[in-house]
Specification:
Length: 174
Amino acid sequence: MTPVQKLAGLPALILLAMATSFGIAWQVQDWRLGKVLAEQGAQFETDLTAIGNAAAAQARTEQDKRLATEQQLAISDQQHTKELFDAQRNQALLRDRLATADVRLSVLLDATDSGSGCDVPDTASTVGVVHAARRAQLDPAHAQRIIGITDTGDQGLIALRACQAYAKEVSTPK
C-alpha cells in the first residue's frame, strides 16, 4: 500500500469513527431522554392518582353531608307530621265535645256596654266556672266554624314551622 492509499483510507476511517461516535451519542441522548420521559410519566401518574383520590374523598364528604341533611330533614318531617296529626286529633276531639254539648264556647262581654241586653248569670254552673265576668254563650254552629278556622290556622302554623326548619337546614353550611 502506498502512502497515498494509506491517506485516502484515513478519512474513511475518521468518517466511520465519527459516524460511530455520533450513533453512540444519539443512543445515549435517546436513553437519557427516555429516562426523563419515564420519570415524568411516573410523576404524572402519581399526580393523577392523588388528584383522583382527592376528588373521590371530596365526593364522599359531600355525599355524607347530603345524607346527614336528608336524615335530619326526615326526622324534622316526622316531627312536624306528628305535630299536625296531634293538632288535628285535638281539634276533632274539641269538635266532638262541642257537638255533644260537653263543652260550650262563650265570649266575654264588655262590662261597660249596658246596651247589650245579654244577662248571663255570674254564678258557677255544673259544667264550668264563670269568674264573675259577663259572658255570652256562642251558638254551636258558630262554635264549630270557629274551631274549623283555628284548625286551619294551626295547620298553617305547623306547615310554616316545617318550611322554616327546612329552609334553615338546607341553607346552613356544614
